[in-house]
Amino acid sequence: MNAVEQYARAQIVTDADAPQAADRGAVPVTLSYDAERAPRTVTVRMPGPGNREWTVPRALLEQGLRTPVGSGDVQVWPCGRVQTVVEFHSAQGVSVVQFDTKALTRFLRRTYVAAAPAEPVPH
User: Fold this and answer.
1) Residue 11's pLDDT band (boundaries 50, 70, 90)?
2) What predicted TM-score, i.e. pTM, was given to this entire model?
3) In the beta sheet, which residues pair with residue 17?
4) Measured between alpha carbons, how far is 54 from 73 in angstroms, rounded to an integer?
5) Which residues contact 77 (CB under 8 A, 6 or more apart)?
6) Residue 26 CB contacts under 8 Å (≥ 6 apart), including other chains
7) Element (H, E) at 123
């Protein structure tokens, strides 16, 4: 298995165009990874108008679980012990999204399993 896709609920902290869910802004977000096509990046897709998909360096997302980091249009930082904030900048504005750190950690672990070389089959 070289591809990983995981759904997570995230809290949109700022974004005027984001739909507001009944549970105070929590929206379904898709995290995806393809070891063959883009082994160093993950894709984050959020619902909403326009292109709401960002490509994020996997190492940046992992490092942002522990310490504030940024690269280009993406900033990531821990928010307490159980939340991680990801800030996306685009021509349409800024989206600040808060994830459960456990969900991001679980997803990243799955990407490393997917990227690991396959064990040779004994003859």
Assistant:
1) confident
2) 0.80
3) none
4) 9
5) 64, 67, 68, 69, 84, 85
6) 9, 10, 11
7) none
- CA 104 to centroid of chain Cα atoms: 7
- Examine the pLDDT at 83 and tell me if it is beyond 50: yes
Burial 67-96 (b: 16+ CB within 10 A, else e): eebeeeebbbbeeeeebbbbbbeeeeeebe
The CA distance from 43 to 40, in Å, is 11
Strands (E), the chain: 3-14, 26-34, 41-45, 53-57, 69-71, 74-79, 83-90, 93-100
Name the residue type at position 95.
S
Q: Are 81 and 53 in contact (CB under 8 A)?
A: no
